[in-house]
């Protein structure tokens, strides 16, 4: 069976950003600034879009609240007015043109009600259509440890295995209740895993009993790094959850539906050669601001 090319990325950014209140009353979480590795001050969403482009993605769907579409369009679709453009350095004038070219690859998808990450992903169903897609968190940025970007690594693994791929990293037991975790059997030790189960924010006791992976240190577990390549069948399971009001922690989750997808189609886990930086909490955002640029 031939592998369909991964052309599209979905980036949900419609959440309220409650953990960064009150700053998020006036600035959307995805528009918080960071200093990227090229030394530029960028909104988080721009660094995420550029990460997607580095994997060969040609179309990017950003899931936003309807009232926020204009501010994201200002970044990706609208050039600065002439009086401002002429004040920019020649390098920044060129970068402004680049932003418009990037904007040609971006579409905005709306989430009318904020019902969780799974619901946000489901809002991309019609746009994605019947093809695999790259799913990215709207508040995480990535830095590769090798010459291939983190997303490029994921795409290449997908092309090898021809099934959904979830990115992995190790986390200590103390914080796994904040993450999606997986278990499975190594195909290639500490690199490629045949996933057998995914669990959303498990307790330590549950993880110790059900989510151990051979060779991973005691009281460390394999958790989701924040990147996914998913087949379109995920939308069947998301739709079922929404129609039957099957929630976890009060919201429609992606991880529970990924577990169903795993049981139906199989799934591969990949330990990404890189680092993930979380901009969604005050402490982690502060650390991202320090570490992401400096490495």
TrEMBL record:
Catalytic activity, EC: 2.7.7.9
Domain Nucleotidyl transferase: 8-287
Source organism, top-level taxon: Bacteria
Cited Pfam families: NTP_transferase
Keywords, in A-Z order: Nucleotidyltransferase, Transferase
Catalytic activity: alpha-D-glucose 1-phosphate + UTP + H(+) = UDP-alpha-D-glucose + diphosphate
A GO term, aspect molecular function: nucleotidyltransferase activity
Family: Belongs to the UDPGP type 2 family.
Protein name (record): UTP--glucose-1-phosphate uridylyltransferase
